[in-house]
Structure to design on (292 residues):
């Protein structure tokens, strides 16, 4: 197949294994391929877009998943002298891909399984924020055998805003947050997550959180466990309908930088959220085994 995208010729033989099949992985492959240090990128399993890129990029059809299924890509990485593994989705990080490759001496761009649980469990992340005095909405978590208690908690109208948000604690492809407008809708949302298992095992634990209003931004950052390099703030539009209506999707588009994120706001994000998060991970011992 002829090359569709032109990339600079490689000046080193750095080989990268990129895990995932979404648009995120397509974008990562595109940018990584522009580095002169990179000679080859295997996208596993990749998608139609990455299949058309050509040049340094090729799809890799090897099944993998949670341990012990990492064995298949570990064997490939060893046989093909992979220098770096880049997981695109959150799930392999939560499943321990960083630790699996660390054992064989191949670095992974991503956190340890313990640190990744800040993304993998909303309940754990809320407890982490509370413990380390990081600003967050009021909340209470309930496990699958506490459905009755969760119902009574919602009926007690525990938040000053008079509304709550229902969140499946586990990973749900960005769709596990329900925003009811009434108590009746909140109870129905709770039932759909905890009883009807709308989000599968992700709903084994549920966070009932205070509803907050206002512009929302996302600020991602790079860190080695001490230094923090924030990226530009982004705004994600998740509702399926026009005018920000309807249920959440995995993301209907995002743009950056977000105009609402002034320098003052970004400074607060760094001081009040990012810095205490990295400090809290160190205090909790999550950086003892690996740099993030």
């Amino acid at each position: 197949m002829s090359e569709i995208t032109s990339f600079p010729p490689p000046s080193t033989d750095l080989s990268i294994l990129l895990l995932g099949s979404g648009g995120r992985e397509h974008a990562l492959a595109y940018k990584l391929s522009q580095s002169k240090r990179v000679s080859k990128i295997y996208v596993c399993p990749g998608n139609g877009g990455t299949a058309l890129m050509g040049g340094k990029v090729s799809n890799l059809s090897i099944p993998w998943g949670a341990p012990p299924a990492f064995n298949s890509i570990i064997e490939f990485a060893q046989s093909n002298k992979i220098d770096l593994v880049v997981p695109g989705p959150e799930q392999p990080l939560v499943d321990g891909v960083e630790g699996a490759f660390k054992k064989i001496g191949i670095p992974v761009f991503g956190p340890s399984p313990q640190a990744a649980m800040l993304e993998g469990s909303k309940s754990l992340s809320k407890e982490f924020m509370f413990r380390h005095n990081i600003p967050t909405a009021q909340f209470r978590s309930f496990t699958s055998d506490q459905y009755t208690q969760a119902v009574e908690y919602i009926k007690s109208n525990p938040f000053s805003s008079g509304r709550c948000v229902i969140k499946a604690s586990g990973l749900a492809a960005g769709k596990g947050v329900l925003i009811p407008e009434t108590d009746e809708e909140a109870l129905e949302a709770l039932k759909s997550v905890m009883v009807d298992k709308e989000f599968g095992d992700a709903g084994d634990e549920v966070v009932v959180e205070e509803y907050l209003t206002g512009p929302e931004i996302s600020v991602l950052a790079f860190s080695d466990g001490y230094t923090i390099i924030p990226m530009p703030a982004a705004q994600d539009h998740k509702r399926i309908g026009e005018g920000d209506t309807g249920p959440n999707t995995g993301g209907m588009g995002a743009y950056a930088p977000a105009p609402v994120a002034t320098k003052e706001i970004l400074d607060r994000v760094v001081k009040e959220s990012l810095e205490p998060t990295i400090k809290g991970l160190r205090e909790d011992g999550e950086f003892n085994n690996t740099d993030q």
Remarks:
- The first strand starts at residue 14 and ends at 20.
- The chain has three domains: 14-111, 119-210, 221-283.
- Residues 14-111 form a domain with the Rossmann fold fold (CATH 3.40.50.20).
- Residues 167 and 177 are 4 Å apart (CA to CA).
